[in-house]
From TrEMBL:
<keyword id="KW-0175">Coiled coil</keyword>
<dbReference type="GO" id="GO:0003747">
    <property type="term" value="F:translation release factor activity"/>
</dbReference>
<feature type="region of interest" description="Disordered">
    <location>
        <begin position="208"/>
        <end position="231"/>
    </location>
</feature>
<dbReference type="InterPro" id="IPR017509">
    <property type="entry name" value="PrfH"/>
</dbReference>
<dbReference type="InterPro" id="IPR045853">
    <property type="entry name" value="Pep_chain_release_fac_I_sf"/>
</dbReference>
<dbReference type="Pfam" id="PF00472">
    <property type="entry name" value="RF-1"/>
</dbReference>
<feature type="coiled-coil region">
    <location>
        <begin position="148"/>
        <end position="175"/>
    </location>
</feature>
<protein>
    <submittedName>
        <fullName>Peptide chain release factor H</fullName>
    </submittedName>
</protein>
<feature type="domain" description="Prokaryotic-type class I peptide chain release factors">
    <location>
        <begin position="119"/>
        <end position="135"/>
    </location>
</feature>
<feature type="compositionally biased region" description="Basic and acidic residues">
    <location>
        <begin position="221"/>
        <end position="231"/>
    </location>
</feature>
<comment type="similarity">
    <text>Belongs to the prokaryotic/mitochondrial release factor family.</text>
</comment>
<dbReference type="InterPro" id="IPR000352">
    <property type="entry name" value="Pep_chain_release_fac_I"/>
</dbReference>
Length: 231
């Protein structure tokens, strides 16, 4: 089973690029799921309008998934008159998709948390120091530790401790992901607009069929032959 991260970015493009990015995200997810590949959006930055995004990161799991995503990696072109600026002359909008180096994920398993009962401290009445209701909890794989004494119930304090450890682990994973994306992004600040790997057209976002190379060559030869005959 492979795991890959793919990042979609507008590269600080205008609102039209944000709309294209939202459509690309939906199209990519639909294609991956159609191929039986597991895909989950693990990070998303919303754009300025409904249906738009500035960026998104997708975690993809499966076997031989490189083949499934390879044709998406690079610059995606969307050909469409701006729905936001009708008089704007530009009709070509570009969005980048690139693979992100894997982030080491610390697994979340409640069974890997150890608890230590300790006496509560501070205000709380005459019984606060007589009962070991406070809890020190440690997530052993990551070393994440929390101390909870909110409740006189040790069971309730354990529940609070589990939730706080989960929140801390999620924050760490999010920070790792942002760091990796920023490092990768420094190498992809300029989108290659002249050679898109995929092109879509219209508000319904239909794929533009690429003209086959042999057809281009045949037409070129015909034109050259015609010029020679006329010359």
């Amino acid at each position: 089973m492979e795991t890959k991260l793919v990042h979609i970015t507008t590269a600080k493009g205008p609102l039209e690029c944000q709309l294209a990015a939202g459509k690309i995200l939906a199209a990519l997810l639909a294609e991956l799921r159609q191929k039986g590949v597991q895909a989950e959006v693990i990070d998303r930055t919303a754009g300025q309008e409904n249906g738009t995004i500035l960026s998104a990161t997708i975690q993809i799991n499966g076997i031989a998934i490189q083949t499934a995503i390879q044709s998406w990696l690079g610059t995606i072109q969307w050909i469409q008159q701006s729905p936001y600026r009708p008089n704007h002359g530009r009709k070509n909008w570009f969005v980048g998709i690139f693979e992100v180096n894997p982030v080491e994920i610390t697994g979340w398993d409640e069974n890997e948390i150890s608890y230590q009962s300790v006496r509560s401290s501070g205000a709380g009445g005459q019984h606060v120091n007589k009962v070991s209701s406070a809890v020190r909890a440690i997530h052993k794989p990551s070393g994440t530790m929390v101390f909870v004494q909110e409740s006189r119930s040790q069971l309730q304090n354990k529940k609070i401790a589990r939730e706080r450890i989960r929140e801390k682990l999620e924050k760490v994973q999010s920070e790792k992901l942002v760091s990796v994306i920023n490092q990768t992004w420094s190498q992809h600040q300029e989108l290659e607009r002249g050679n898109p790997v995929r092109t879509f057209t219209g508000m319904d976002f239909k794929p533009k069929k690429a003209e086959k190379t042999f057809k281009k060559q045949r037409n070129k030869l015909k034109q050259e032959l015609k010029k020679e005959l006329n010359g």
